[in-house]
Predict the 3D structure of the following.
Amino acid sequence: MNKSSLSTRQKIARLAIIAVIPLLLITLVLWAGGWLTPSRLTSDKLVTALQQSGGHHPGYRRNHAKGVCVLGDFAANGNASTLSRAPLFAPGTTPVVGRFAIAGGNPNAPDYAVPVRSMALAFYQKNGEQWRTGMNAMPFFPVQSVQGFYDLQIATLPDAKTGKPDPAKIQAFVQQHPEITPFFAWAKQYVPSSSWTSDRFNSLNAFNFVDAEGNPHLVRWSMVPHADYQPITANEKGDAQFLQNDLQQRLAQGPQRWDLIITVAGPHDKSSDATVAWPAERQTINAGTLTINKTTPQQNGACNDINYDPLILPNGITASDDPILNARSSAYAKSYNARTREQAEAN
């Protein structure tokens, strides 16, 4: 084979590769959007299901729509530096922009109507990296899979005639997803607190902290309040804004604080199942204190333009193999793009 023939074949091969790359990219985009597999569960379907449940409210998040922005900082004590090389865990202070919210897609829902509440935080490291985390005031997640979460939204949609979920659909859902039984048991006996400031917020999903030597450590975390728990009162059940009013009153008296408690997994704890709480005897580390000292309305506030994507992580934290994490990240992006577009169109 002469050099000229070899050169021609090499050129053809290179052209073929160049032609294939755009085709592969297009295929990946179509697959991610569900166009090649219409029956596959996509983030569009998840967001649509959430919107059906909470109603369409342009300019708002599709879940945890009602909330407030908060500002503060995280003072690390250095204890977690043995587990993670992320700079925010070294002794020092990191600014934080956060958000308190209640679950659901209705921004006009009364605060007392929804027992599940959330805390979302964005930590801004000096090196430009961020850690974003969304936590919930419940001990574990209702379902194991993304399909289970979608099925739950569909099963609990209000019936057109009664305005309430159909018991038969919920019963069928429980038969298909028996892992939700402990969550229903918890929800039945749970008495919400009278304040966001006394709620414990949990990551639910597991992540890996990566130390200075590159070793991973499977963890979950919680924001444990300094304020004492007080159950919701009859008066608060009649105040649609009681959580926001309470927060403003407490901040007027002084900053509110939580300790960041890291829980380290045992050898048999699963990284991919957020429906199971890890045993109480697991090793815990107090990584430092979150201080919140200011609140602002969410619309046009400091947190309005933040997508609290749980996969925005600094060097020193990586995602686990929990499938819920990728679904949350994708659905958050869809919700963010939709609401920011709606806000821009309204202005």
